[in-house]
Amino acid sequence: MGMGTKLPGNMIVSMQEIFRDDEHKVALYALNDSCGPQDGFGRVLLLIGASGSGKSTMVKWLVNFLLGVKWNDGSRYEMDMTSTLSGESFSSRDYSSKTQWVTGYTIKSPEYGIFTIVDTPGFMYMEGKDSYAIPQHIWTFFKVTGMKELCGVGFVVPAATKWLTTAEKSTLRSCLKMFGNDVTGNFYVIFTFSDCNEPLALEAFKAAKIAYKEYYQVNNSAVYSLYKSKKYSSFAKLDWDMGARGFRKLCISLSAIKPFSLALMIRVMPEQDAIDDKCREMTKVAELKLKLENNLLWLKRLKGRRSSHVKVQGNLREARVTLTIILKDLNDTLLSISESSMKPSVMNVADYIQLLIEAELQGKRPGKKERLQVLKEAQRQAEVICRTHPKKMHSTPVSYSTPVSYELRWETPEEEQPEGKVNCEK
Q1: Which end of the chain has less Cβ packing within 10 Å, N or C?
Q2: Which of 418, 335, 319, 337 shows the shortest CA–CA distance to 378?
């Protein structure tokens, strides 16, 4: 084996803590004293990705690139976040302890100016609640830090990924939904663990029909690796060059791209959360209404006691009234969001339920037939509401994305009743 190549020395670069909220797990750091709050955030890049995608290591790679580190340099930078509140610090080798946080790093690059990289939790850190928890976490970060605009959203995914998991697609679409459809022009894909070949994961994005502006390839192993021989060093040099090319193109694109405002997202996000809550209420009540109707038919066929008929009819009337109230509230919320949007679109409650139906038709989850029946029941009543409470708006095409959170949070009754029958004695 040939002569070994020396491991690049690591230099700790101080990251001054600008802001930290332990309750919401959001923080903002700046590199040394090269820039501060008075300098602004520069070009802001938000990174999202699954746990194990190499996202956090890629942040360190990107920091080294922005600081102008070259392959032949004898050292690499590691980040040391120093708390202005407690004076405690930890090196980037302890970085994994912060991956449950949304953390921003503001860096002044000699070549590209000020950049802020926003790292987010890996999908699997959120205990199965990613599709709502991560967008809410991101929303909190932007709200409390006061960031007004975003230049790009980078989705980090391993190059060898053959297909996107349901969790990845749901969380990704939920994050994109948070910013609106216009973000696709600012959406990038970064493939980690890449070689110089076209990444297999490209096909996964095509299959998932996820639009993006550009993609880049990096291999994090080139940053801190100990190369055992000249042979391995030459391969690592290829990986370094590939990553540097990708980061260079990304930084040039972010420097030229028109950022999009976060003001609407910060204002509308609570309303979208309210929509998700109302959808869950709607499905519960619509399901109850269907069961009561089936139960009434069952009692009539058996010629049951009149008192039972009266009780079921009363419960059914109550369910209809409750469903009407929920659908009206949902309709008002949807119209309110449409009116406040930069690109208003006609989206009423019937349209929204149609999106839910289409999403259900595309899925393969157990209980699909029953859920479609419930949704169609709700849609029938929603169409009546839309006819009796019309509201004219700008006639541009509907541009709402699939309500992902609904897909993942369908709630089933705690106690199963016989088919078509509910307990009327409560």
Answers
A1: C
A2: 319
Shared domain for 313 and 352, answered yes or no, is yes
Count of domains for the chain: 2
Q: Are residues 28 and 150 in the same domain?
A: yes
Decide which of 261, 286, 310 is a domain's last residue: 261
Q: Which domain holds residue 338?
A: 270-408
User: CA angle, 406 as apex, 405 and 411 as ends, to 5°?
Assistant: 115
Claim to verify: residue 249 and residue 335 sit in the same structural domain: no
80 contacts 15 by C-beta, under 8 angstroms: yes
CA angle 46, 50, 54 (to 5 degrees): 80
Q: What is the pTM of this model?
A: 0.67
In sequence order, which residues have a C-beta less than 8 Å from that of residue 356 and are 6 or more positions away? 279, 375, 403, 406
Residues in the chain, overall count: 426
Instruction: Indicate the range of 8-12, 326-330, 368-372 predicted with least confidence.
Output: 8-12
Q: Where are the beta strands (DSSP E) in 253-324?
A: 260-261
Are 240 and 277 in a shared domain?
A: no
End-to-end CA distance of the chain: 80
